[in-house]
Amino acid sequence: MNLFKKVLGATFVAGLATFGLAYNPISTYHYLADPGAAADDEYFYIITDSDDPAPYNAEGYSIKALYGFRSKDMQNWTDFGIIYDARQVNGVGDIWASGIAKNPNDGRLYIVFPDGGGGGIVLIGADSLAGPWTNPLKDNKRLIGWGGGAISGCDNIGWCFDPAIFFDDNGDGYFTFGGGDSPQRPARDNDNNIFNIYKLDKDMKSYNPNTKVELKIGGPKAMEASYIHKYKDNYYLSYSTA
User: Fold this and answer.
1) Most exposed of 2, 105, 129, 192 (fewest Cβ within 10 Å)?
2) Distance between CA atoms of 121 and 208, rounded to whole angstroms?
């Protein structure tokens, strides 16, 4: 089944709730946000961004690190601490909400993250959650961004961030991103056009910009955080509402 031809919509509405596992958090000594999750036949993986490394007097979203956690039973977790640190990578600023997936073709983990507030989308990969995490693209390009340092631009999407990565049953890989509102790419009730999806090359070294699909969807006004998952023969797009 071609992902581009069969995507169903779903939405998440932010609110207050009480969860049964709130008494047993995975971590209590970090400032963590925006988790992403993945699994393979052996482990569950969680990544989060964090402003722990930010200067004590930092203002705004000074988020420099990704933390990693791994479990076999979703009860006992190994905390890997900082698995990727923007301060150690030339050309990367902040790291915001990220996505993670296991590639069935090469057995590696891949993360997509936004470089700060709309600066672009970066791809990194590693053999294990502990890393080292490196950019597999030629010349360390971004997947999405401004100027010559990226394969494609933000395509008039208001907020060039909040990416997700997905691998289909046949091994085909995709990434999606987007958010906000712009005159060219609106976010309105029953008229949303703020997310793009692209198909990654099998070797994870690039993608063809011509595979782009604009995810035009109805439903409540979209804000950010597109995410693709598959259940049986259907593909589902979830996102955060305004």
Assistant:
1) 2
2) 15
Give pLDDT, residue 51.
84
Is residue 68 within 8 Å of residue 78, measured between CB atoms? no
Q: What is the dihedral of CA 17, 21, 27, 33, to 10 degrees?
A: -30
- Residue pair 182/157 in contact (Cβ under 8 Å)? The answer is yes
Q: Which long-range contacts (CB under 8 A, 24 or more apart) does 202-208 make?
A: 202/105, 202/171, 202/173, 204/103, 204/106, 204/108, 204/110, 204/123, 204/125, 204/136, 204/173, 205/136, 205/137, 205/138, 206/137, 206/138, 206/151, 207/143, 207/151, 207/175
Strands 32-39 and 44-50: antiparallel
Q: Are 116 and 102 in contact (CB under 8 A)?
A: no
Looking at residue 136, what is its pLDDT? 97
Q: What are the tokens at 109?
A: 């983990």
Query: How far lies 128's CA from each of 108, 109, 134, in Å?
Result: 7, 7, 12
Q: Comparing C-alpha atoms, which of 213, 206, 201, 137 is closest to residue 173? A: 201
pLDDT at 92: 84
Give per-10-residue mean pLDDT for the chain (242 aa). Answer: 51 36 70 94 95 80 92 93 90 90 98 84 97 94 89 95 96 97 96 98 97 96 95 95 84
Separation CA 179–CA 8 (nearest Å): 18
State the Cα–Cα distance between residues 240 and 226, nearest whole angstrom: 7
Q: Can you tell me the distance from the alpha carbon of 78 to that of 71, in angstroms, rounded to the nearest whole number?
A: 6
